[in-house]
Specification:
By secondary structure, the protein is α/β, with parallel strands linked by helices. It is built from 12 helices and 10 strands. The chain folds into 2 domains: 215 residues, Spore Coat Polysaccharide Biosynthesis Protein SpsA, Chain A (Alpha-Beta Complex), CATH 3.90.550; 86 residues, no CATH class. It starts with a strand and ends with a helix. Its EC number is 2.4.-.-.
Length: 309
Amino acid sequence: MIKLAIVIPYYKLTYFDDTLESLSNQSDKRFKVYIGDDASPENPERLLEIYKDKFEFVYHRFNENLGGTSLAKQWERCIGLTNNEDWIMVLGDDDVLDKTVVASFYKNEKIFYNKTNVIRFATKKIFGSKVKEDDAFTHPIWEDAADAFYRKFNKTSRSSLSEYIFSKETFLKYGFYNYPLAWNSDDRAWLDFSDNKPIYTINESCVYFRISDYNISGKKDNILLKNKSEIQFYKFIVFNKLNYFNNEQKLRLLRRYQAELRRFRSLKISDFFVLLYFYLKYINIRWIQKFFKKIMNKLFNGKRKHGKS
């Protein structure tokens, strides 16, 4: 029988009781929780004492804070606490599962077994302490990872780390890429972890993910780091994943990479030629003409400045 580990990278006490309560309310207790305390100033042990007989968990406090410099590496060292479980969920310390999530996972085992490496659930949002009262956000039952990502890119879908369960085997093969703030680390993970198999969705149960001033999604002061992450992530898409998309999607992803570069700094000549290579490869005459114009302007302006000096 497959086994499920629920991994919680812990740092903040606010709303953590809600997370633990949702685990204690699971109708199916065939899971083990691993809590990795990232040297938090808010000790959760008194709260954990309340739940010691309600579900099985391991609590480990790390001596050094890692999430402050590399959130993706903190996720990985928390996963390192697990034992012989086959599947892993990384649950935010303020996110919540409805009571049937684990039961639905095992109920669907016969359908997804050996056919996928990545499973996701329907979701609802919590703003602060208030659940948004709307229908659950659902997905196609089977979907290619590239299609799932592109729907999010196109703002017709959404995605959060907590709503996924993934195989430990594929995690060990790829790991989480260490982007700044782990921004896009989960999006890249589903493209990698899927390993050419479709994502399977369980729409009958919900994961509630929270947006608040206490988490990265709710903060407004991380713009520069998020922009650096966007550049790195879309460079990865352009150089490694474009073949998974159709030509129209490829061109939109190229333009996004170009836009993120320009948001961060002026384009270099090397940037122009890299992007021109891909535009030529996928033949978009209008964008090629724009590129030649920009390249000539940049070369002309560079020569003019050099002549003045």
